Amino acid sequence: MVNYRYLGNSGFKVSEITYGNWVTHASQVENDAAIATVHAALDAGITTFDTADTYANTAAEEVLAEALKGQRREGLEIFTKVYFPIGPMGPNDTGLSRKHIMDGIHGSLRRLNVEYVDLFQAHRYDYETPLEETMQAFADIVRQGKALYIGVSEWTAEQLREGHALAKQLGFQLVSNQPQYSMLHRVIEGKVVPASEELGISQIVWSPMAQGVLSGKYLPGQPVPEGSRATDEKSGANFIQGWLRDEVLTAVQKLKPIAEQAGLTMPQLAIAWVLQNPNVAAALVGASRPEQLADTVKASGVKLEADVMTAIDEALAGVVNDDAEGTYSVSPKSRLV
Question: Where is the NADP-dependent oxidoreductase domain (predicted)?
Answer without folding.
Answer: 17-316
